[in-house]
Predict the 3D structure of the following.
Amino acid sequence: MPAVSKGDGMRGLAVFISDIRNCKSKEAEIKRINKELANIRSKFKGDKALDGYSKKKYVCKLLFIFLLGHDIDFGHMEAVNLLSSNKYTEKQIGYLFISVLVNSNSELIRLINNAIKNDLSSRNPTFMCLALHCIANVGSREMAEAFASEIPRILVAGDTMDSVKQSAALCLLRLYKTSPDLVMMGEWTSRVVHLLNDQHMGVVTAAISLITCLSQKNPDEFKTCVSLAVSRLSRIVSSASTDLQDYTYYFVPAPWLSCKLLRLLQCYPPPEDGAVKGRLVECLETILNKAQEPPKSKKVQHSNAKNAILFEAISLIIHYDSEPNLLVRACNQLGQFLQHRETNLRYLALESMCTLASSEFSHEAVKTHIETVINALKTERDVSVRQRAADLLYAMCDRSNAKQIVAEMLSYLETADYSIREEMVLKVAILAEKYAVDYSWYVDTILNLIRIAGDYVSEEVWYRVIQIVINRDDVQGYAAKTVFEALQAPACHENMVKVGGYILGEFGNLIAGDPRSSPLVQFNLLHSKFHLCSVPTRALLLSAYIKFINLFPETKATIQEVLRCDSQIRNSDVELQQRAVEYLKLSSIASTDVLATVLEEMPPFPERESSILAKLKKKKGPGAVSVTELEDNKREGGELNGEGDRGPDPAAMASSNASTPSPSADLLGIRSAAPVGAAPTSVGSLLVDVFSEAGPAAPSAAVNDDGFLSSASPSEDPAPPLSEADELLNKFVCKNNGVLFENQLLQIGIKSEYRQNLGRMYLFYGNKTSVQFASFTTTVSCPGELQSQLNASDQTSGTTGRGWSPDPTGTQHRVLTDFSDAPLLNIKFRYGGALQNLTLKLPVTINKFFQPTEMTSHDFFQRWKQLSQPQQEAQKIFKANHSMDTEVLKAKLLGLGTALLDDVDPNSENYVCAGVIQTKGQQVGCLLRLEPNGQAQMYRLTLRCSKDSVSRRLCELLAEQF
Amino acid sequence: MIGGLFIYNHKGEVLISRVYRDDIGRNAVDAFRVNVIHARQQVRSPVTNIARTSFFHVKRSNIWLAAVTKQNVNAAMVFEFLYKMCDVMTAYFGKISEENIKNNFVLIYELLDEILDFGYPQNSETGALKTFITQQGIKGQHQTKEEQSQITSQVTGQIGWRREGIKYRRNELFLDVLESVNLLMSPQGQVLSAHVSGRVVMKSYLSGMPECKFGMNDKIVIDKQGKGAVSDDAGKSDLGGGSSGKQSIAIDDCTFHQCVRLSKFDSERSISFIPPDGEYELMRYRTTKDIILPFRVIPLVREVGRTKLEVKVVIKSNFKPSLLAQKIEVRIPTPLNTSGVQVICMKGKAKYKASENAIVWKIKRMAGMKESQISAEIELLPTNDKKKWARPPISMNFEVPFAPSGLKVRYLKVFESKLNYSDHDVIKWVRYIGRSGIYETRC
């Protein structure tokens, strides 16, 4: 044991611990612990009071036993007692025990809070620090409730010691993270920001963490911190490293603080003030300059600290994206790192360059490093670094280097790690499509891709090839020839067979002239793969065969033979069997004209957003900047795709989507089905049924597809609100949930909740038809002056589809001041080609923001008298619209949101209510009296509010209700 | 079959590692250590599967023995082997401890080579092993060629457990009936479960190749023979206590040493064998009916408020007053929040053992048909834990000089036709010891 002064040694503890360590087995350890626990129990139970030292010792032992993994269910009281000790060591052990062991629902929490409060107000910095650490370590909601208001005061008080300030800042940060709603900065904000100017570097470092976190939530309130941060940063950067003695880390001045400052600045746009901006640019330049200087130390810590600042500075430069000079310099700096010995540095360089590549200023500069990056892709030993290299290649790709990059990625794919193959495949597919100069190259690339990494080629990739081939007349022949050649390989991937089957089925005729690829040869080639394929592919091949019958009548006998054989016509798979039977009948019954109509070549696909891109986005998650960036570029490069801004993918895609009920639906299905409906043959009608089942979009959606597109472009103004909107509104004065609107197409349900001046409303849209609505959009607007009175923001998540939309639209309201009008909800969608335009009033009324207030009869009438000015009162006498049942009336008044007060009015017939309306700026107290007159079926309603407009509005609203 | 065998000390360090098959790699050693010995939660199952490898372990004091296999082996066989292995080691160097194992590395590897071959268990009879695996070192080499070939013929022959040409001046034979009685009783004195597992252990010093025949009061045999034959042996071996006037016991199941002729047992239910030389276990058996319970425990627990508990336990001995039970120990569990205990007992010594959370009451000797009591006051520390104390059962240990199952040895006859001694010349000793197994009464 190390020598310690006798008072604090706790020899008993040391002996106990060494006993435990010497135990030969688990059983021996348990025995020793049981013995100790019994000893401590008898000591705690003992009648004579323990002195602080032994209490500390036993609590320490308990803590040690707990940390060994045994349950401790006593000793909490003793630990709490230690908190009130005056000795540091005892207090410290008490706090330690509490932060480790006390759970928040314990009844001791009140005592603990009390002790903490005492310590916080003790003015002894060590005790204050201990208390703050305990609050931060426990960090429970109860703690936050008790101390959230106290800690900011300590933080900004002038006479607080630096070390306490540091602790207070971090403690507040912790509380803010656990319960942000309880930490109200309000008036402290500016003083907290000014902590950036504090003399003590430790305080600044702690405070900046807090400020960064707070400013992410409300950037506006903390705007002033930008200039302070810049000046602080410039002072650090320009200082000689000796200036900040304690905070110089291996010759780098205050690296943590610098990084945090740079990160804080990344929360804001570039400063508008020219002087500040100039100073910041100067700082960033200095940082970049320093990176070029020879290192002052060979130690790895020195370079780590330096590089940390450098990378943070570079991400700030990228964030601003406005200084071409800096961007290029950053890029050059990263270029140096690309060949650094350190793997971590190379990784970081690749990662940062990825974001640099998306900036217009530095894109060219990034491109110069292409050789290094390709080299990295090939030679890096760490898979995560290779992954970054692949990302960077993808990001830096443009038309000039697409061919090279795609070729490199393809060649890498052969040896790539399994974990990143699928992503690589998607990237290659996207790049190939986006920067395709001629489409034969594109087709070659994709077929190569399927050949090299067939297993990783997702459905979307080969759908896309087919869409492009079908939409581009000029490549069809080449594509047919290429797939024919590719299929001749002895073993080819199933995806290749799918592409081959589809393309030969459509465009086999284009290469049929060549005797080497005569129709029969084509068919035999396809059929040789048939038996090796899975059911969906076989189904697709069967459709290809029937198309062959149409294209090449000479193959009819052979194909009919194939269809007729037992393995098709009696296949155990229903889909295959049905196709075989139907195609066989179709080919033998229908005339060539009918056949030609039914099996017509596929029409071009209307374009939407590339499904591959969507898939890649899904894979990468929202963090991937490069992908969204790429999407923008895509629009620029759109004309290259020929189809202009028509994105890919139509109904046929939908049929093969994940939502498809029948897994064997294929691309041929739906398109060929539509004409069949038109040609009324006996078989045809059967086909329609089959296919309408197969596709979720249903025939009508498919048929009307083009109509949709043509009428989609003009944008309509929102329709005027429905005439019955006001009536609908009144239904919701006294209730929060229900059906807002219903017609033969659509039902809108509403669910709302209110707290203080905030309200949240969920709208549920139900599609009552069996057809999907297209381009379903909703907007919430506040007309006229309401805009200044009520903040309405809607968080619409795209909701179309049949039945109840799974995720409702949320609307959030924040009342700024009282209001009388209601926000408007505009809904637009297409049903059967016709645009439906609906405008409804959202049932947000002033009374929703009521907070009930309970008061006695005396209080009520005292206030009633205080609000005696004539404009504060609104009164109305009106006839009852509904029955005057007591219970119904009570329910309505409660639904209003006010408190219904009993025994207030001397006349028990009368109803009396009180409540406070919460708005952002102010609170409006409201008192209400409703005097029913049973004989005359009349009411007298009297309202007195501290604001006249509120009384009037409420009076209007309520008169309708009774 | 067994792929390998490892022995660890309490820290998980490997003392012995013997791999018999290639499918067991070096990492298996570590896997067992990490997943069982050093496991965060105590591993209670004796069989652990880690990455398609099965580990069968037994623990002797602080030593872990683990057999490893990748195949689907008969687990009972593996454990039987491990127990046998423990017996063999005990016979060679006494208690199995880290110290002893470290001192006998070479011997243990030699033994492992002999008793397991490519994972298949071989002859593990201590007597036979001792003939060719000796601890004398150089001396062993003085065996003559003939002796060596004799070992071979014996080990590979029909009677592998006994060599020929043994000679004793005094032909002597010791027979111990060792039983352990297990009980679980409700607080009201209702027997919830009870069984006796017994062993017949023999030590024989007989010359030549004698043929022995063992007889006991097995119900099936008695019923078959009728009353006449019983009387002559019954008087001699009627040492057993208890009030049982019954003549026979029903044996639920039994297993025999390999020397017993099973075919004869199956056909005539007679136990005849050529005994190995020295000590061995002739048979094991189990009974569940008509068990004589030597002690009755009557608990009385009263909770006085939240901070006090009063316990009174009475034990009654239930056998002939002339017999003496020994080494009686009653273990009364105390709640986990006990802060102090006062004990008063009339007989023996009682002590609160905090390390085991129990009051241990020891009585050296106690005659039959007596009773004794202990009372204790337990002080409790109030805790904020709402869990109620689970009240574990009161357990008991003792040793009595009779067989609680009621088993009696009727005869043990020795026939040696070649040498000129007869059954009457053999000196025979019979002893009954009944011990407590898990003998618990709920309170």
About this structure: Chain B touches chain A at residues 10, 40, 42, 62, 336-340, 354-357, 379, 381-385 (CB under 8 Å).
